[in-house]
Write a structure and sequence with these properties.
This protein is α/β, with parallel strands linked by helices and about 190 residues long. The chain has one domain: Uracil-DNA Glycosylase, subunit E (3-Layer(aba) Sandwich). The chain contains nine helices and six strands; from the N terminus they run ααββααβαβααββαα. The chain has a six-stranded mixed sheet. Strand 5 and strand 6 form a beta hairpin. Helix 1 packs antiparallel against helix 5. Bound molecules: uracil. The site of uracil has 13 residues, from helix 4.
């Protein structure tokens, strides 16, 4: 598993399939621990991810780490993290369909190697890629879908939570808390 991932990563690091290769500082392939249980797929690298070459290391990433920590999970031990596309779109605009299409091979290969029993689909860009026929993220977050390798659950993107401060019952943060607890419940059942 590790060697296969290294080999796709090396391919990805020199990829020039789309225009984003001209503006990126670093390719952002993955972080966390390769495993067949829990994988999170986000949207695209932002400013800090591009600088550091790692996914979810900016403010949204720090919140994501706290969300995982709240149920005893961590990227160092339990979760493999990657994005729908591996290079930062200028000014953090949404990835274009052709960028998603040319990068798709890398995401598909990561998932094919890992065959994760749980995939967390983080935010609407990832939702569009992995479950294109699903309704919007607000309708489907917290619901389980059957995927090629196991279960998939769409969850809110942490940057959406950063824009919505409330922790009241029914708020995005509160809903995320319900979702991550459900994820942990199913994750524990895998063991
Ligand atoms: N948002 C994402 O979706 N992915 C990252 O890596 C960082 C921010």
């Amino acid at each position: 598993m590790f060697e296969e991932l290294e080999s796709v990563k090396n391919k990805c690091l020199t990829c020039t399939l789309c225009e984003l290769s001209k503006t990126r500082t670093n390719v952002v392939f993955s972080d966390g621990i390769p495993n067949n249980k829990l994988v999170l797929v986000g949207e695209a690298p932002g400013y800090w991810e591009d600088v550091k070459g790692k996914p979810f290391v900016g403010r949204a990433g720090q919140l994501l780490d706290k969300i995982f920590a709240s149920v005893g999970l961590s990227r160092e031990r339990d979760v493999y993290i990657c994005n729908t596309i591996k290079c930062r779109p200028p000014n953090n605009r949404n990835p274009l369909p052709e960028e998603k299409a040319s990068c798709r091979y890398f995401l598909d290969t990561q998932l094919e190697i890992l065959k994760p029993k749980i995939i967390l689909i983080c935010g609407s860009v990832a939702l569009n890629s992995l479950l294109p026929d699903a309704r919007g993220i607000t309708s489907v977050r917290g619901k389980w879908f059957e995927g090629k390798y196991g279960k998939m659950m769409p969850i809110f993107h942490p940057s959406y939570l950063l824009r919505n401060d409330s922790r009241e019952k029914g708020s995005p943060k509160w809903l995320m808390w319900q979702d991550i607890k459900e994820v942990k419940r199913v994750y524990d059942d895998l063991n």
